[in-house]
User: Fold this.
Amino acid sequence: MAPGHSRQPLVVVVCNDLIISLNPDLDSEALLALTLPQLVQKLHSGELSPEAALFTYVGKAWEVNKGTNCVTSYLADCETQLSQAPRQGLLYGVPVSLKECFSYKGQGLTLGLILNEGVPAECDSVVVQVLKLQGAVPFVHTNVPQSMLSYDCSNPLFGQSTNPWKSSKSPGGSSGGEGALIGAGGSLLGLGSDIGGSIRFPSSFCGICGLKPTGNRLSKIGMKSCVYGQVAVQVSVGPMARDVESLALCMRALLCEDMFCLDPSVPPVPFNEEVYTSSRPLCIGYYETDNNTMPTPAMKQALLETKHSLEAAGHTLVPFLPSNIPYALETLSTGGLFSDGGTTFLQNFKGDFVDPLGDLIWILKLPRWLKGLLAFLLKPLLPRLAAFLSSMKSRSAKKLWKPQHEIEVYRHSVIAQWRALDLNVLLMPMLGPAMDLNVPGKAPGAVSYTMLYNCLDFPAGVVPVTTVTIEDEAQMEHCRGYFGDIWDKMLQKGMKKNVGLPVAVQCVALPWQEELCLRLMREVERLMTLNSGRSDCCLPSCLADSGQPETIRSAPSLVRAQLPP
Assistant:
């Protein structure tokens, strides 16, 4: 398959009779407008049938996919799952989308790599098993960047996914297909993974909510990766949805005895309802910039408006900045991810076309001595790139253990700094708005706001709060970055013509305190929705003319779906 070749869009063969007989008078637009808790209530009461929900969302996903290329495959087993879904489950009858890294029995997982083609999974991943036990109906796999180590979303097998708000913009990555599908209304709830921002970037770029839990809060058994055994920087499994309450509902459903039994390595700690629903005022640390990636005008304005709203609601906001962020990013995170010099990662690309991944591949391919020499020569002019190069050199076991220990020491130092101010949670900018296609790989330094919390292994979530204004756009011309290097220049170039696109903030809590993180996210969402006068989260304006049928009577239901061989 030639580089850049994209497979055909999802082909859907439809039949109307079944869905008409199930819910002859139901308005499909009304169904699609339901929040996840509302849909669950109607499914449990019998007011809606699981078939109506599934086939309506399959039809909507098909429409969305034609414009964004976000779906890689239809999970044909979902129709069987309809009849097997336990009615008492918290997610009974809910269609759920999955990032194309979660094993689903009989379905292949490629990660956009040719060497992974044609190898069907032998069983479901643990999180998929738990979703099914809770009554959910997984129905599609969604697109990822090649290898998943990118915050864009393109690969040689399935092509480029695009942003539902503007097709010239990236949906983010690596859970980019999820972000695009949910952001455009083609799914209510999805699962992603995050090792440097892979849930949070798509959530920010596509105007939805996403949560990266502590690394081992949810099971990772059955999740495919390009590199196994790397433990210095933790990968997390987490939910993505239109609103915070949907994230909380998903966490309630997953944090159950079934998960703790299927994967005893996950701490058997159920969802803490008391913490999540508490209304007591919070002590919130905040920072406007990490002094590594200059926030865009829209990012800064979003943070300040959110801060003022929280203060007006009675919460206490305290300036706080984690110590030594450049060290955490350039030495600990990069060194931890590529402690073998990238050898294991590069093996995935043998005999494959390499999708545009920016500087990463060519840097990893450099011999160790050349990385060291370039780091020395570039340090006076390009200090970030020099540190990046230096940290990507292979090292011995002795030198591997040292940075792993240093990550532990750094984590405890930040926790001590946090507790000295008696903070509950933390608020900060989130990279946004969406960048132009193919730009993320050329601006790796911009992962600073997200990667830090993978290094620390703190739970972190993203909530959309504002949109880019004409004033934000005009000020972007003066946003040169802190270093003025090629990464800063690419970031500025890739963030233009964004008026009307969503902008988010990031909320963080200490390890294992996902409920507290969600509590802050819920409060931010509530206050910012009130201030904006919106009744709920906005959907891309392009969807208003998507051609989606008005009623279930004319909406397509799915008999089967095919992708070309």
User: Anything to note?
Assistant: The radius of gyration is 22 Å. The first helix runs from residue 17 to 22. DSSP finds 22 helices and 15 strands in the chain.
